[in-house]
């Protein structure tokens, strides 16, 4: 299963690679702040409880001809979605740190810089 750091996603978006950014958080969280151009399929709560059926029922909303980057709050539940998508033939990756990591990257926070350093060392 693939993982993408926020700076890597930003580079891909800026270069015009056009990955499909799939935000699985609840709609209220998505409306409160999301990655520009992302699409919301709010299956976070179901996946967190182990129910994959909601995401499976909405696969037609996810293009099969583009790389998919899955976003949640912290990146943990997004791993489940990424694993499911991989199994369905999608080229999917999880955004490391989720929206928390993305916001930290955008703000240049110290906690993001430290976390990013750890990711690079792994």
Summarize the SSE layout with pairings.
Blueprint: E1 2-4, H1 6-14, E2 20-23, H2 27-32, E3 39-40, H3 44-48, H4 53-57, E4 68-71, H5 76-87, E5 92-95, H6 98-107, H7 110-121
Parallel strand pairs: 1-5, 2-3, 2-4, 4-5
Domain Rhodanese: 15-111
InterPro entries: GlpE_sulfurtransferase, Rhodanese-like_dom, Rhodanese-like_dom_sf
Protein name: Rhodanese-like domain-containing protein
Structure description:
The protein has 122 residues and is α/β, with parallel strands linked by helices. The chain has one domain: Oxidized Rhodanese, domain 1, CATH 3.40.250.10. The protein is 48% helix and 14% strand. It has seven helices and five strands, in the order E-H-E-H-E-H-H-E-H-E-H-H. It comes from Halapricum salinum.
* Biggest β-sheet strands, sense, barrel: 5 strands, parallel
Beta-strand percentage range: 5-15%
Order of helices and strands: EHEHEHHEHEHH
So how many helices?
7
Number of domains: 1
Give the low-pLDDT segments.
none
Q: Name the overall outline.
A: globular
Instruction: Specify the CATH architecture.
Output: 3-Layer(aba) Sandwich
Which CATH C-level class is it?
Alpha Beta
Structural class of the secondary elements? alpha/beta
What is the subunit organization of this protein? single chain
Which structural traits does this protein have?
alpha/beta; globular; Oxidized Rhodanese, domain 1; five-stranded parallel beta sheet
Summarize the structure.
This protein is of the alpha/beta class. It contains 7 helices and 5 strands. Strands 1-5-4-2-3 form a 5-stranded parallel β-sheet.
